[in-house]
Amino acid sequence: MSDRPNPRPRRPENASNRPNMTPGRTMRARFSRTGATSWLAHLDLMRVFERTLRRTGLPLAFTQGFSPHPVMTFALPLGVGIDAGDDVADFALDADIAPEEFVGKMNATLPEGLRILGARIAPEGGESLMAAVHEASYVLRGPGVGAAVARLPAAGPLPVAKKGKEGSKIVDVRPLLVELAAKDDDALEALVKAGSRENLRPDLLLQALVDHAGLPQDAADDAETLRTALYTTGPDGARIRLA
Hints:
Number of strands: 11
Order of helices and strands: EHEEHEHEHEEEEHHEE
Helix content: 10-25%
């Protein structure tokens, strides 16, 4: 028997650790989701993308630890029941591939309702994808939703109750509302603050129409929500579509 002491057990690495990214190997993809996939919670959506990525055979970069999984970042999590017309996610790769190959293999494997619209190599350096999101645009549809826009007070606070894990608190949605216009009596278009610093959820905008513009509560509860785009801010302060 050896006289040497048993080696100290190696401490497992945290599963959240990310590998060092090789420049030019993060694929930034635009995607849409509709139909049944719109009812997936964010973590479930991530699992669908993870299973898809594994099945494609693409050269993926994985997290470290006991349960490695593909490294991916979604620009702004989608709420349950929200369709996406043009959202953005980053996928880390372990080798260089053409964006066209990434799009083709993903679309051949993704379930119905999810589709990659396009892809490109993400720019090096700068802020993270999630930090880059500053605004989001939505189309909301439901009986009387568009007509209620004209009844919303043009100035002053728009307080609504925001429910969270620690209870309900009153928030003013006015500073988070950038643009609001009716498409027709039953639909509106909105541009709102979004991201990690300031974020207006579409359900809170609908609640503001209930509380301050007389929209029936059932119309707000049953409204269809489509997120049409995400935006960042350029060096000159101009709004730039995130892609």
